[in-house]
Write a structure and sequence with these properties.
Shape: rod-shaped
Number of strands: 3
Number of helices: 13
Radius of gyration: 32 Å
Largest sheet: 3 strands, antiparallel
């Protein structure tokens, strides 16, 4: 009875508050330590005491936390949320944050589903290659289909040759050039035309940039690029590029008097 009388009327102990609100005592102690919610009083025996006003504040904290606000946000906002406009601004900002998280989670889920499909198609366990596919998926690089065609030596070359920024830049240029080639094919532009040969020069320049001038890599690139039956949109697109480029490259090499593929064979 003495212990009960030590608590003044209108005040509650940390245990009573925890039970009433449905949180743990440890949570309330943590909020106190972080300065988010400190008890309004202390009993003669040193017990931390809360009031009904503290309960309202605690309810605010729990509500804001359920909306994804961090404790730092809550600590900062509990003081300033005094007008409808302030509340609206805080909620609008948090809504934007949640949308960004949803987009990130959606992208992660999409990458997981795509990687799962790729893993089943590859029929081998290769975490090095999985990592490359994941990076490309995160960068929204549709050409990640290339990666599963590359062997480990080719992937090591790519890692050494490009970082993330230069790799993205290279793929952007490759895609733009491929778009030009597809347009030329649609317009039935002859392989020997100057317009086509200009694009072929740029395309061959990209190949030399990719290989860093190492002609021994050409057979591997030819093997990777050889698509008999397209299995996806990227391969369908690349097959169009390959079919149009083959005669155009022959014209180009004939004009400059070089046969790089023949040199590799010798």
């Amino acid at each position: 009875m003495e212990k009960h009388r030590a608590i003044p009327q209108g005040y509650m102990t940390v245990g009573e508050v925890a039970k009433k609100i449905g949180v743990t005592v440890r949570t309330l102690q943590y909020y106190d330590k972080e300065g988010v919610l400190s008890p309004s009083a202390e009993s003669e025996g040193g017990r931390r005491l809360y009031t009904d006003k503290d309960l309202v504040t605690l309810h605010q904290i729990i509500s804001l936390k359920s909306l994804g606000f961090s404790l730092d946000d809550i600590k900062r906002r509990l003081i300033s949320l005094e007008t409808p406009t302030e509340v609206e601004n805080a909620l609008a900002e948090q809504a934007d944050n949640i949308r960004k998280k949803i987009e990130q989670l959606t992208a992660s889920l999409t990458a997981i589903e795509q990687l799962k499909a790729e893993v089943l198609q590859m029929q081998t366990v290769n975490f090095k290659k999985y990592a490359d596919i994941i990076v490309n998926l995160q960068m929204k690089n549709d050409s990640y289909y290339l990666i599963k065609r590359f062997d480990d030596d080719m992937l090591d070359h790519i890692r050494n040759q490009f970082d993330k920024k230069s790799g993205l830049n290279f793929m952007d240029r490759f895609k733009c050039l491929s778009d030009e080639i597809i347009q030329l094919q649609k317009e039935s532009v002859p392989p020997e035309s100057e317009k086509c040969q200009q694009v072929v020069r740029e395309y061959w320049g990209l190949i030399m940039e990719f290989t860093n001038g190492d002609m021994s890599m050409l057979p591997k690139l030819m093997e990777v690029g050889n698509i008999d039956t397209a299995a996806n949109a990227w391969e369908e697109r690349q097959k169009i590029v390959n079919d149009y480029l083959e005669p155009a490259l022959q014209v180009y090499f004939s004009k400059i008097g070089v046969n790089p593929f023949g040199e590799v064979e010798r």
